[in-house]
Amino acid sequence: MECAVMMQRIFKTSVVLLASLAATPACTTTAAAPGSSPGYITHPEAQAFIKEMAARHDFSKAELNAVFRAAQRREDILKLMSRPAEKRLAWHEYRKIFLTQSRIDGGVAFWNRHAGILEKAERELGVDSQVIVAIIGVETRYGGNTGSHRVLDALSTLAFDYPPRSKFFRGELEHYLVLAQEENIDLLSTKGSYAGAMGYGQFIPSSYRHYAVDFDQDGRRDLWNSPMDIIGSVANYMHEHGWDLGAPVIIPAAVSGDAYRAVLDKGLKPHTAMKQLQQAGITPSLAQPDDTLAALVSLENRDGPGYWLAMNNFYVITRYNRSPLYAMAVYQLSEAIRQAREQSLQARHD
Length: 350
What we know:
Blueprint: H1 3-8, H2 15-23, H3 44-57, H4 61-70, H5 75-81, H6 85-88, H7 91-98, H8 101-113, H9 115-125, H10 129-140, E1 149-150, H11 151-161, H12 166-183, E2 191-192, H13 205-211, H14 227-240, E3 250-255, H15 260-264, E4 272-273, H16 274-279, E5 282-284, E6 293-301, E7 304-310, H17 312-320, H18 324-349
Antiparallel strand pairs: 1-2, 3-5, 3-7, 4-6, 6-7
Helix pairs in contact: 3-4, 7-18, 8-10, 8-18, 9-14, 10-18, 11-12, 12-13, 17-18
């Protein structure tokens, strides 16, 4: 039997098969060898989780024991969780990571290569092509880096040894076990980010299950190898969170006085009408209808704070990643890609 097929049937076969996988030379896994680390099988919280999963999803306890014997605690993942770029960098530092010529050029190439699929996603799901491309560019450099951490290790480490968010990651670990069945994902060798995000668009397991779509209609949602599923799934995520095709995302603004400071404390979801924002000393660079809702965002430029009025589409980007730095990077990269592509197409036409 081929190694990949064996791994895909992990929950449909006996625990004896799992044990044999670790000893089969043709299979590349990190299952614990005899006498090596017991993985998470001895962790009391992992044992409680195994009982819950067996009761809730009718998984075999023996099979789950084998899975968590293979799962390994990763100290590097715990260190990475403590210092994400969104929390340790100012905007002008964060921006330099994503607004690069190579990422812009890569976005143009990705758009040109998949123009038909992007047009279909834009037409059917109402999400601008440039934003779909930019998200994939920010997340994985258009598939160039989909992650080097084994998802099982990442989610197990964060579920059982990262108290600040253990409840959240325990839920993601549950989703991952179910997802492995639903999509025939190789449970023991699939790799992703240090937080367990997968594929070109870096979907965590719950997002994969809820928002990924079978855009090519082949019976499987494949976020690694199917450009249609990859693009359609990112578009569907944005669509389900309320993206408005062609609508403004964020507008530069000027501030005066002190009243604007109270507006900064109200969050990223648009909450205040433009007329009231102007009364608070906030002036948009582009005129907007008085009843347009917006939120005020401040990000640190090299020479001091900059201010922008964020519309609903900006808020939707933060549903993908809650950092305003991330959302701004996606928006500015999307604009740079669009402009570069238009210039390229125009030059070709001339």
